[in-house]
Every structure is written in C-alpha cells, then in structure tokens.
User: Fold these one by one.
Assistant:
Number 1:
Amino acid sequence: MRITISDNGQLAIPLEFQGADGLRPGQECEFERIGLGMFRLKATPQTSEDHRSLLDVLRDCPEKGLFEAMERRETTDDLQTIDFE
C-alpha cells in the first residue's frame, strides 16, 4: 500500500490498519531506520489505563447499583487438609 508524505513531513497510517491494530489518536509509536529508504514503525504498548477490565468499567458506571459484588460464602480457611501417606 502506498502512502504520501505530507508537506510537513507527516505520514498517515491507513484507517484499515488503524482499526485492525487498535491504534488511536495520540498513541505513541517507535520509528526506526533499518536501512536506506527502509523504516519500521512500531506502536508502543498501551498503558494499563487503556486496558481496563469489564469489572473496572462496571464499577465506574454512572448508573449506580448496576454492578454488585457477590457475597463470599466460602474461603480457603474452609478447606480441610488431606494427609497423603
């Protein structure tokens, strides 16, 4: 796929690649020259804030009461030890 360098030296990553790789505006990337006219572009890993769990999303939901933690009835203290001889 061909892309064009803009007048101010910027490259645009095609939208199909952005979507497939989960790239977002403002995400940092590493740009490395690997040879004459050859370059490597590598998206840096997203921060932990970007990888929030479903549980975190539910806890932050503005509709309170949507998520309620289950009451624990058993713990590891309830387990009995087994002696194998």
Number 2:
Amino acid sequence: MGLKNMWNGLLKKKWLRNLFVALVLLVLFFTLAVRTVQPRENLTFIEKGLRIAASPFQYGFKGINDSVSGFFSYFTEKEALQQENDAMKKEISQLHSQLTQMDEVRMENIRLKELLGYKDATRGQYNLQLAEIIAENNNNLQHTITLDKGSNDGVTTGMTIMNHSGLIGRITAVMPESSEVMLLPDRESAVGARVWSTREVIGVVEGDGTDSATLQMIHLPHDADIYVGDDIVTSGLDGVFPGGIHIGEVTAIEYSVTGLTKTAYLKAYVNFSRLEEVFILMNSGGGSGN
C-alpha cells in the first residue's frame, strides 16, 4: 500500500507526470525510428510517418557524427603530415651531407691532380714523397704540422716540405710513423733567399709568428735591387733548403731607421691555412738549384 500511495502521489504532481510521459514517448519514438530505418519495401502508414518525423534527428546525428569524425581525422592527418615533414627534413639533411662529401672528394681530386702533375713535371729535379697532414698546431708561439710519414718511410730531420705552390717548411722531429714540420711562418724559421729575376739580391726570409700569409726578407742593403712584385725563391746557400723553390711575392719595402738596410715584405705563395697534403723532398740539401 505504501508504494502504491507514493506512486499515486508522484502522478499527482503535474510536471513529474509530464516528464515521465515525455521520456516514455521519447524512448518509444526512437525505438520505432530505429526499426523503421531498416531497408524494407512495404511500410505501414505509421512507419512512414515515423520515418519522416525521425529524419531531422537522423540528419542531426549524422552531422554530429561527421563533425566528431572530422575532428579526430584532422589530428590524424596532422600527425601524418608532421611525420612526412620530419621524414623529408631527414632526407634533405642526408642529401646535403652527401653533396658536402661529394664536394670534398671533388676538391681532394683537384688537389691531388695538381700535386701529382707537379711531381711528374719535376721528376728529374726532385724526389718527392706525398704525405698527409694528420695534425696541426698554429698559434702565436708555434706554427707546426704533423705528417703521416716517419723514419719507417725514410724521413729524416732537416728534409724540405713543399707543394706545387712553393716552400712550406722543414722536418724538425721524426718518429717511426710520423714527423713534425716547422712551417715557414714560425718565428724560429729562416731560409736563405734571393730575387728570382736577378739572382743577385741575397737575404733571409723569416716568419713573424703572427700572420701565416706574411713573411719578411731581412738584412737587405739599402741599395739592393729589389722591388714590389718580385718573385722570391730559396737561394740554396743556407745548407738546408735546395735553391730555386718559390717562397712568395714582394708586396712592400720598408727602410730601417738608420737607412742603411731595408726589409721586403712577402705574401707567401702557399696558403698555410688550407694545407692537407704536402710533398717531402727526399733529396733535400743545400745547393745552387735553378
């Protein structure tokens, strides 16, 4: 009795009664709508009406479904595009690396071709052995490089190092499989030199230890026949370097304070900042040269 009275009490409240009726109708309506959407040829009058009534809801549900599907599809496509973009960036990076390596190989081939061409052209004059630079130490105190050839290859201290452009330096220390070279720009380096055209002006070329591109020819008499643009070569009179190896071009001349001597400044023919392969002159030694 108590439950029946409670139910009758609830039905007496108008808004609750209306809500209950609406829910029942809504459930019934959608149940029938679902049944009527199944493909059938013969529909009753009521089923046709329900199908017509349910069509706006079906379109609405379809729109919501499409929107939700589109929302997740957007993120799926975005992720796929991002992955594709990352893959393309990686591929571009790999291609760039390959191009860089190809360019390095091309430049190496050019250098080796020039070096080997010079070796063939001077075969009767010099006994040259090709060596690769494996380390370098260039600072204001020291300018040296280390080669991949040593005593096992017949290398000894004092041997001249050069390339097709000109004089580079001399061997100062030898190990079984490597050797150290003092470069011409080093403050401790010095080489007897002369003017190529006249072969009469004699001096000493040395580095200043600060600029690998600039050398200076010192101990020149004030009236020495030397001019800007002259080609300076080794004299062969120092007992260390053979004569006739090109050193650099005169770029400026400066007189001393007393006016008794002058100094010629040279731009070295060798680019000391871009050395990679060099020649070891195996028959080094002083001499008049060419």
